[in-house]
Specification:
alpha/beta, 9 strands, globular
């Protein structure tokens, strides 16, 4: 227990020094309010954006907002072969992201980034199709070389699953000069970014289903946890969803890192305005499309970037179990216990063979 407390404290300190600096880069602070708007003007702007997107049909019929899943025309490039007792192949997949922003005022800027108009994923495939887990990365991540170290890909593959590592809009190879432009201080850009993320993920799922995958689920970290939770509110075909150290509220993050201005009352009003504006793309904005037994939320006791309250809120919203480990957001000490809980859930659901439940 003493060692665990020491590790938790160390992980929390690392989150504060490295993670906060990553979230609160100078360019983000400047661009959050480029016109120098005061608190009331900010709220008026957010309300104007909310009226564009917050329409009843966007909540009652998600296809009117996120569109229908389509099988993309994909290009595949072989990366390497996988040896061992259960051999396979690693492929990089890319396809045109058939996405159009709803808001005319942001369309030209959004579509002006050519790199972002190509969606991409790295696939770890067995010789014959297996159930697939789609992994969704966090903010400022997504480079395949990094993601292969952040996720226990060999362990997941050895459970008998195929693996697909997706790249979110405006991240990694989809970002101009490596700069993540999403989420953005411009809430229109953020909303459209989540719409594109869901469209790209559903296209990837459709591609894998067409290949013969018998089931497809999603696991996401941080921003990817937010995105996987959002996906689980609109797509009942997902076999399971596992948000890990998820962000549940972008408004909470904005408040925590000091992006709200004015008196405490004015900051509270801005927080509420951000929540309302982003409700249409919030994992907490709709009920779950999945039953609770196909959902598991994982949080970290020492997380100082998206603290454990984020995971608790998401678990409560989805009526799902919450698994915790003692590390932090970036230094995830003890997360093996959480992945063992994931493994048990997958075995119970029949996604993996029961013999793997104790592997």
């Amino acid at each position: 227990m003493v060692l665990r407390r020491i590790l938790t404290t160390a992980a929390s300190g690392f989150d504060k020094t490295v993670g906060a600096a990553m979230l609160v880069r100078g360019d983000m602070i400047r661009s959050f309010d480029p016109a120098g708007l005061g608190p009331e003007a900010r709220i008026e702007l957010l309300e104007a954006i909310r009226t564009i997107y917050d329409k009843p049909e966007h909540f009652t019929a998600s296809s009117s907002f996120f569109g229908e899943a389509t099988i993309p025309h994909v290009e595949l490039a072989r990366v390497r072969l996988l040896g061992g007792p259960d051999p396979g192949m690693v492929l990089d997949a890319s396809w045109p992201s058939e996405f159009e922003p709803l808001e005319e005022g942001v369309r030209a800027d959004y579509l002006g980034h050519a790199l972002n108009r190509t969606a991409t994923a790295r696939l770890f495939l067995h010789a014959t199709p297996r159930p697939v887990v789609i992994l969704v990365h966090g903010y400022r991540c997504g480079a395949f070389a990094l993601e292969e170290r952040l996720w226990p890909v060999p362990w997941i593959f050895e459970l008998g699953l195929d693996v697909a590592m997706a790249v979110l809009p405006f991240h990694a190879c989809r970002a101009p000069k490596g700069t993540a432009l999403f989420p953005s201080p411009d809430m229109r850009f953020t909303i459209e970014g989540f719409r594109q993320a869901i469209a790209d993920l559903r296209a990837l799922a459709a591609l894998l289903c067409d290949r013969g995958a018998p089931a497809i689920g999603v696991m996401g970290m941080s921003l990817g946890g937010y995105t996987s939770g959002l996906w689980a509110t609109i797509d009942p075909t997902l076999a399971f969803a596992v948000p890990i150290v998820p962000c549940a509220s972008i408004a909470d993050v904005a408040r925590a890192v000091g992006l709200l201005v004015g008196t405490p009352e004015q900051q509270a009003a801005q927080h509420q305005a951000i929540e309302s504006t982003l409700r249409v793309v919030s994992p907490l904005g709709r009920p779950s499309a999945l039953p609770p037994d196909r959902f598991l939320v994982v949080g970290a006791a020492g997380d100082k970037i998206t603290p454990l309250d984020h995971a608790r809120r998401m678990a409560e919203h989805f009526h799902a179990p919450l698994e915790t480990f003692h590390g932090g957001h970036l230094l995830q000490f003890g997360r093996a216990d959480a992945f063992r809980a994931v493994r048990r859930m997958l075995a119970r659901l029949g996604i993996i063979e029961t013999r793997h439940a104790a592997a």
